[in-house]
Amino acid sequence: MASEFVYTRRVEFADTDTANLIHFTALLKFMEEAEHALYRSFDLVGFRWSEDSVFGMPRVSVSCDYLGAVHYGDEVDVRLRVREVRRKAIRYAAEFTVDRSGGREVVARSDWTVVCARREHGSRDWRGIEIPPPLKERLQAMLASRR
């Protein structure tokens, strides 16, 4: 299994501000899109609505360091890596790169933690649950391939 997952996303007009630069929140959306694309690559989901509850992977911690400019039309590669797999939580890291004349330029780095959770319909409270075994196995395989 590969040690990282690469997701590519073009910066659209709606992702930018009036200076033609990507709005800082757009990279966070790209990060989440990459995470869910990873789940789909495993034939799994990061969110599911059922008759009695909702399953999800809410973020409990996010950080992002912005290192370079990203403009409308740029194609951003999100290089997603698993940093840690716990019983109920997953820590991810990502590096965002764009193509420049000198090669790929790192424009941002992020780190985030998600918790596997379930919420009964009618309740406002999410309850942490163990990561489903099929997902945990694949994430641990990604982590092991980095060593």
Description:
The chain has 147 residues and is an alpha+beta fold. It has two helices and nine strands. The chain has helices at 24-41, 133-145; strands at 4-10, 48-49, 53-56, 59-66, 75-85, 89-100, 103-115, 117-120, 127-128. It has a five-stranded antiparallel β-sheet. The protein has a four-stranded antiparallel β-sheet with strand order 2-3-8-9, with no helix packed on it. The chain is globular, with a radius of gyration of 16 Å. The two termini are 12 Å apart.
Structure keywords:
alpha+beta; 147 residues; 2 helices; four-stranded antiparallel beta sheet; 9 strands
How much beta, percentage-wise?
A: 35-45%
Identify the overall geometry.
Answer: globular
> How widely separated are the two ends?
12 Å
The low-confidence parts are none
Helical amount: 10-25%
| Assembly classification | single chain
* Broad structural category: alpha+beta
- Total number of helical segments? 2
User: How many strands, which pairing sense, and closed or not: the largest β-sheet?
Assistant: 5 strands, antiparallel
The number of strands is 9
In order across it, which strands form the biggest sheet? 1-5-6-7-4
Mean pLDDT: 94
Compute the CA-based radius of gyration.
16 Å
- The ordered H/E elements are EHEEEEEEEEH
Q: What layout of secondary structure does this protein have?
A:
Blueprint: E1 4-10, H1 24-41, E2 48-49, E3 53-56, E4 59-66, E5 75-85, E6 89-100, E7 103-115, E8 117-120, E9 127-128, H2 133-145
Antiparallel strand pairs: 1-5, 2-3, 3-8, 4-7, 5-6, 6-7, 8-9
